[in-house]
């Protein structure tokens, strides 16, 4: 079991490096999004519906994944490891995040309009009035936040349950990804059913956000940065996203700012191209550390 779980982590990371994402028509997260979409409307009891959706749909996704991995295990342990690796490939993302951020940073030097357009793949904010430094800030912030959401959280769920069962480990990764997808689709104050998905995501992301901050600090060779970022980590409205963002701001020595919402490491300047490129490298190393740690934890 330990060997198959670690092999699944390695397979998921290798597929991410080679292909970045599964094809859209075959992507389980896209399928899950189609399952969620009909609930994004007005309801007579929106909080009750939101609670039911938040509890039931991630459990459904986890149950399906557990069943598929368990069925593969009846054929051969290697088949189970292969299916679990495919689950991790579908539920984690690093290369696409790094590529998107790198492209946005490069475009801030050559084509600001294109940089604003491409930023939409990373951050949901209105970029129409952002200057080059503000676009780079948004890209760096999104790098840090999405490291936690898109990589560390599902890997952590997988690694924590791997010693118990490979189907449970894969189910945990799927559950975390489903919770995060629900939040990204429904978890807004403007959405009638958004309260429960948002609160569930806050709870699910509490540990991954802080682990991500530590990984960023270690990747930059500055473990004390987590402590230095502690006060700023509480500035954003989210109880979690401030931790990796503030830590990355500290290790880069730059200010990260979303106008009207927060300023992290406020005494610094907004990131230069060199700063932002270093941010991409730091997050890349932090991501590799996350994969390595998950593989080691899954072994035991």
Automatic annotation (TrEMBL):
User: Taking the first listed entry, what is the main subcellular location of this protein, grouped into a coarse class?
Assistant: membrane
Q: How does it sit in the membrane?
A: Multi-pass membrane protein
**What family, per the record?**
Belongs to the CobD/CbiB family.
Q: Which GO terms describe its molecular function?
A: ABC-type vitamin B12 transporter activity; threonine-phosphate decarboxylase activity
Q: Where are the transmembrane segments?
A: 48-71, 78-98, 151-176, 280-299
UniProt entry keywords in alphabetical sequence:
Cell membrane, Cobalamin biosynthesis, Membrane, Transmembrane, Transmembrane helix
Q: List the subcellular locations.
A: Cell membrane
The record ties this protein, via InterPro entries, to:
Cobalamin_biosynth_CobD/CbiB
Q: Which domain of life is it from?
A: Archaea
Q: Name one GO cellular component term.
A: plasma membrane
Q: Which Pfam families match?
A: CobD_Cbib (PF03186)
Q: Where does the signal peptide begin and end? A: none
Q: Which residues form a coiled coil?
A: none
Can you name this protein?
Probable cobalamin biosynthesis protein CobD
Which GO BP terms, alphabetically? cobalamin biosynthetic process
